Structures are given as C-alpha cells and as structure tokens.
Amino acid sequence: MRLFEKWRAKSPYYDASHEAVAQSVRRFVETEIAPHIDRWEREGELPRELHRKAAAAGILGLGYPEAYGGCSEGFDIFHSLVQSEELAAPGAGGLIASLMTHGIGLPPILAMGSEAMRERVACEVLSGEKIISLCITEPGAGSDVAQLKTRAERKGAHYRVNGSKMFITSAMRADYLTVAVRTGGPGMGGISLLLVEADRPGVSRTRLEKMGWHCSDTAALYFEDVEVPAENLIGPENGGFPGIMRNFNSERLGMAHGCMAMSRVALQEAVDWALQRETFGKPLIGHQSIRIKLADLVRQIEATQAWVDLLALQHREGIGEPASYAMLKVQATRTLENVAREAAQVLGGASYLRGSKVERIYREVRVNAIGGGSEEILLDLAGRQLFGGRR
Ligand SMILES: Cc1cc2nc3c(=O)[nH]c(=O)nc-3n(C[C@H](O)[C@H](O)[C@H](O)COP(=O)(O)OP(=O)(O)OC[C@H]3O[C@@H](n4cnc5c(N)ncnc54)[C@H](O)[C@@H]3O)c2cc1C
Question: Which of 222, 242, 260, 299 has most Cβ atoms within 10 angstroms of its Cβ?
C-alpha cells in the first residue's frame, strides 16, 4: 500500500513537468544512491563522484541560471520541492544536506558576487567539480548571528582573516567557503561576506561527530592569518547581513518541505510494518488504536504539506511573509518529530536497530528543529512581525 504514491497528482500545484522531474530523480536515487547510502552513513561523508553524477543528471543545477551551468528556464520552486522529495526516499537527511549544500553556499555569490566570481565558482560548483559551504555559525554565535567575531582586516589588496566557525555542513570536503566575517564595528552593520578558498594557508578543519546526518560531513573551521584577495568580497563591505538574511526564507521553506518528505517516508515504513506484523492474532493494522494513530499522522502531514505548497506559491510570487516561513518551519519540524516518534512506536523494537529508515529519521529530528533557525528563534521572529517589537 503506497500511501503517498499519487499525492501530487491530486494537487493543483503540480503538473506533468513536475512528475517528469520526479521520475528522473527517482531513477537516479535508485541506481546511484539507494545501494550505497548505508555505507556512506558509516563512512561519514559522500563521495565527490556523487556530486559529478548528480550534476550530470541535472540535479545540482535545477533552478540555477543556465549561464553558470544550471537549468532554470521552465522550472519553478515546485520542481525543486519535487526533487528534494525524491532525494528523501532513502530516509537519510544528511544526503540532501551535504549533496545540496550549494543551495545555501551559492545564492549569496549569485546575488551579490562579481561576475568573475559567479563564473568561476558557480560553474565549478554546479558541475559537481567543487564543493561549497556556507559558514555563518561560530562557537560563540549561533542564533545571535550579529555577535559573530571572525575578523577580516583589510591590508592593502587583501583581507587577513582570523577566527573560527562551527557546525559547518560539507566543510571537511569543501573547496569554497562563503564566510560571514566582521569587517566593521559591532552588530549586523559590521558584517561582510567573503569567499575563502579552503586550500589557502591558515585554513584548518576538524571533523565533528553527530547524532544524525552521518553521511554529511560537518566541521569546525579555523582561520589563522588567512590572506584573501579583496576581490573575494561578496557584495559591499559591511553589507553582508542582508545577503545572509535573503537565504533564510528559501532555506526554511526547503527545510519544511524536507521534513514533510521525511515524515512521509517514516509513515510509509510504519504502515508497511503494521500490515505485516501480527500481534494478538491479527496484523497491527487490524487494531483500532494503531489505525487511529496512523490516520492521525496522515492528517498532520497533509495539513502541513498544504501550507508548504501555499507558501511555495507565495514564494514564487514574491509575496511570502517572513513570519509565514518561520512558523511553517516550526510546524514542519514538530510534525516530523511526532511522526518519527509514532512511526518508531509502531515498529517497536525494530525501530531501535541500526539500518531502519525510521531509526535514522528519528535521530535527525533535532537538527531540523535547531538548524536554519531554531523553533524559539523562529516563533519569536514571527511574534515580533505579527504583534510588533519589544514592549
Ligand atoms: C548538523 C548541523 C549542521 C549545521 N550546518 C551549518 C552550516 O552549514 N552553516 C552554518 O553557518 N551553521 C550551521 N549549523 C548551525 C546552526 O545554524 C546553529 O546550530 C543554529 O543556528 C543554532 O545556534 P546554536 O547551536 O549556537 O544555538 P544557540 O544560539 O546557542 O541556542 C541554544 C538554544 O537556546 C535557544 N535560544 C537562543 N536564544 C534564545 C532566545 N533569545 N530566546 C529563547 N531561546 C533562545 C535556541 O533556540 C536553542 O534552542 C548547523 C548545525 C547543525 C547541528
């Protein structure tokens, strides 16, 4: 019983072009990802070759300008959602986080970088030859981005960078780093974005072991007197904060949709199990309380997905409100949290064994609720937008 097999066909937001993307990505996942994902989870990172293959299959470039090797003509935000839905099928959030890190690392360069920088970096990244990370968080500055301390001092034709970054996705393998640095005074008005090539002298990295997202390499980065040419500045000096902010809404929408895709995977696993596992003389699904539990999860997923699709439409039309992105992401992470919990409950002891998708998804709930804006920060942001600032 494929619970969500045809859900897009019944939605006004999706048409045959979206199904074509789905089929193509599904084939890629079945041949190039599903057979290897458990090994990559054990190894702690994705092979570089996967980036090249994903580029060749049109996955890395979807939604990016043709001029840099992307494919945007005739595609909209819903094609990107369909793609991430299919990439979620193996039930490994680290795959999407790490294979698609350019989704957060590249946009500031495309929006604010020089043409020479766009040509060099975007072309290499979208072809899968190079990997890019976005480096905002520091050991002393997470939610409170405006407190970041990594300093870039202008010395003639160079900046000299000193400081450190924390929790950076794909940063063990990254070739390019989009780094938020302090070039001016305190607060958000003193922050710039700088492109740092990861092989520059003075850049070092340490791998971080995590609860989930095992196939996604995460690193702490250290910058010690790293010399970076001044032309690596992305946008105006001290004007980096808007570049960071402009990423947030699409990242939150993408994460919300990703949570729904993972919720569907977990629920499908639970339904499959409930159909074949027998207790007290009948399949689990024959017990009324289990049927109610599963139907309740469908209810939560369908309601949240409806909001994801509505906000995606508003995003496409440029009328999405920051409060909506913030609240939707919280709605989605809480839905995933509940679905993962209840799906694991239906699987019983089997959910606790390594190798089950539900076990993996359960371990990945927290990173969704914390990264890309934690639940508290997002609800506060929404509250301030809805009800006004501090009183
Ligand atoms: C696996 C992983 C991958 C990541 N990848 C990246 C990446 O690629 N690039 C990057 O830059 N960052 C990345 N991050 C960092 C992520 O964005 C931060 O963890 C997040 O912004 C929260 O910051 P923090 O962990 O420092 O928590 P803190 O800001 O220290 O907050 C701790 C807790 O306190 C709460 N809190 C904080 N302030 C308030 C307040 N005013 N009122 C109420 N509650 C509050 C928060 O909600 C949170 O629950 C990643 C994190 C993880 C775990």
Answer: 260
- In tens, the pLDDT along 105-130 reads 999 999 999 999 999 999 999 999 99
Phi/psi of residue 218, nearest 5 degrees: -125, 140
Catalytic one of 41, 45, 138, 251: 251
Task: Characterize the bridge pairing of strands 151-155 and 218-229.
Answer: unpaired
SS3 347: helix
Answer whether 379 contacts ligand 1 (Cβ < 6 A): no
Give me 60's structure tokens. Answer: 């890395």
Note if 251 is an active site residue. yes
pLDDT in tens, 280-304: 999 999 999 999 999 999 999 999 9
Rounded to a whole number of angstroms, the distance between the first and last alpha carbons of the chain is: 53
Q: In which element (H, E) is residue 250 found?
A: helix 241-276
> From the CA of 373, how far away is ligand 1's center (Å)?
7
Burial environment of residue 203 by CB neighbours within 10 A (0 to 12, 13 to 18, 19 or more)? buried
Kindly indicate the confidence band of residue 51, based on its pLDDT and cuts at 50, 70 and 90: very high
* Ligand 1 geometric centre to CA of 347 (Å): 31
b/e burial code for range 361-372 (CB count within 10 A of at least 16 → b): bbbbbebbbbbb
Domains belonging to the chain, first-starting first, are 8-126 (1.10.540.10), 132-239 (2.40.110.10), 242-387 (1.20.140.10)
* Pair 85, 259: CB distance under 8 Å: no
